[in-house]
Amino acid sequence: MNASVDPVAPRLRALIGQGVDAIDTPALVVDLDAANRNLQRMVEFAARYRLRLRPHAKMHKSAQFARLQLQAGAVGLCVQTVGEAEALAAGGINDIFITNELLAVGKLRRVAALAHQLATRGGQLAIAVDSSEGIQRLAQAMRLTRAVIDVFIEIDIGQGRCGVPPGDAAVALARQLSDASSSLRYAGLQAYHGGVQHLRGVAERRQALAAAAERLRTTCAALAAAGLAPPLVSGAGTGSFGIEAASGLWGEIQPGSFLFMDADYLRNERDPAQPQFEPALFVKAQVISANAERVVCDAGHKSHAIDSGLPLVHALPGQPALHYANGGDEHGILRPAAPGGALPALGDTLWLIPGHCDPTVNLHDHLIVVRGGLAAGSVDTVVPVDARGAW
Amino acid sequence: MNASVDPVAPRLRALIGQGVDAIDTPALVVDLDAANRNLQRMVEFAARYRLRLRPHAKMHKSAQFARLQLQAGAVGLCVQTVGEAEALAAGGINDIFITNELLAVGKLRRVAALAHQLATRGGQLAIAVDSSEGIQRLAQAMRLTRAVIDVFIEIDIGQGRCGVPPGDAAVALARQLSDASSSLRYAGLQAYHGGVQHLRGVAERRQALAAAAERLRTTCAALAAAGLAPPLVSGAGTGSFGIEAASGLWGEIQPGSFLFMDADYLRNERDPAQPQFEPALFVKAQVISANAERVVCDAGHKSHAIDSGLPLVHALPGQPALHYANGGDEHGILRPAAPGGALPALGDTLWLIPGHCDPTVNLHDHLIVVRGGLAAGSVDTVVPVDARGAW
Prior knowledge:
Lyase, Ornithine Decarboxylase, Chain A, domain 1; globular
């Protein structure tokens, strides 16, 4: 046997300092220059409107990108699960808002432990509720600590998912919160409309959010009349935050996808009231099979989520324009974007823009972070997806 | 501060021996009794047709389930990536077939290292090829070892993905293989038609596979005429293996999903020539938000892949019949299956049958394995998904 064979061949997609060419496929790659430009645009927007910027970390699931956002001016991070909150806290993030409902006693005990941990570091945990039962269970769990948790009442402003209906239901919960244990602090309203984010036209989004804003306004008025005016309204996403900002009703915005962007957001008509963001998240793939009419690459829907559609092929200068068709978990099938167009050769590299960034990141253990562009850049760092699969 | 708060609250979905009720949500749960019955039915079928059974581990991605299949009579396992092969080898599996093309030099070096490692244990690695370039690169990498790798020429019998066209193209590659380094052994043909598996009607599947079998027959005849008759033809999946078996052309079958099943396969009209399999893979979820017309659970498409459709709700005796609608990455929206039907309460448990088992397993780090059924059973073991995200 030949001694040069290492029986434990390393399974690394990239080494820091190597050129982009050396990144093994399929790999999830972040163009850090583009991501930093996106972040700067968002920070400037929030400053102009005097809005608190609390980016949603359900997108990148990474303490390192959370720290980048805090350094740029974000007030804290949002997450969607207690596991994501724990992962960010372990990575040094101190101000975290779980924008979702939790009912399981075991999870609520973890919430209490985390509130305690963050409080000892001078930080703060927040959470959303939409039921009396949820408040009771949270109060019960918080008896484990003297820490205080900020509680936002989620109202359904039109998405039809979680949240109480606009108006009196929120007043009842706000009153319950005010009467509850001193460990629960009524912090305001969670008012997010996920369905609006991906309406294609600006006019559609404005119309849908006008109705949502009216529901929020009604609720705020009812709360104010009861002496329970919300200290803060938090919400908004990458597709619509310009509209929430202009309304004057929201004090904090929670966009996530703007940092990396995805094919689905790129399909939206851009709102001139919002800055323009550029794609910063890519799947690097390789052609593993080829014939005269198609080639097959090694990136299927195990490499990128397809809940919001298939990826776009991002042709670098000199690369052919291609159309991506679904080839299952492990394969993508590529044909020329126009009849008679060129195809790449066996072994060639492709760059894909995933349809939806959040669940795409959740498929990967690492983000390969590149500076200097996709054509000639090099690997700056490899960032763990700390909260991958964290519930 | 209260000393009873553990700042590092454990993040375990289940403990061995606990009842099913104690499993935290969202969790991926295997009903082991059902999976064992499915396995026994498949083993008996393969024995009746004197077929080698090589289940596809791209489905469960777990060395523990691979060992269960070998103990029941499987000859080895299939995988789709070299990373999956490495994970199974690390878990003690010695006979592995990578049913996919690899072109990257780094990956082919890992293939050579793994072939070497398995050979030292008396095992065997196999791989598929569909290009002259692929054979050359594989031969180059295999110079690192004196181990021999079994090489299967993949032919496209109708799926339109990887594989050479039927007929002469396979002869050219078989000749190249026979002339290549003695580290490459021409082992036969890889002939799998993924597209047939999910054709709903038995008649449709039989018709599509009749055409596929004709392409295979043509190729085998051309190879035989050139003195290169394939030693073995391997292929087939859970949706069609009864048809391949009846054809007499295949010597080895590669079904994966039969062990756990999924909503998409359950939608197929059952072929009476195949045994009936039962669902054995479930997502346990919890209701976290409720109102009069809908409830929301904590399992969205971060818990189950939706490339082959949304999950079915598996109502246990006494549970209401529900319809699942997509609520995004983290949520499912449930309404009564029939108008006026009952809804579960806040905090109640739901069981979902995922649309597609392979990419669903890939979202999870562990399979919670239960014996005694979903209603009253208990946790038998917690199985790591060894090859999650392994490329």
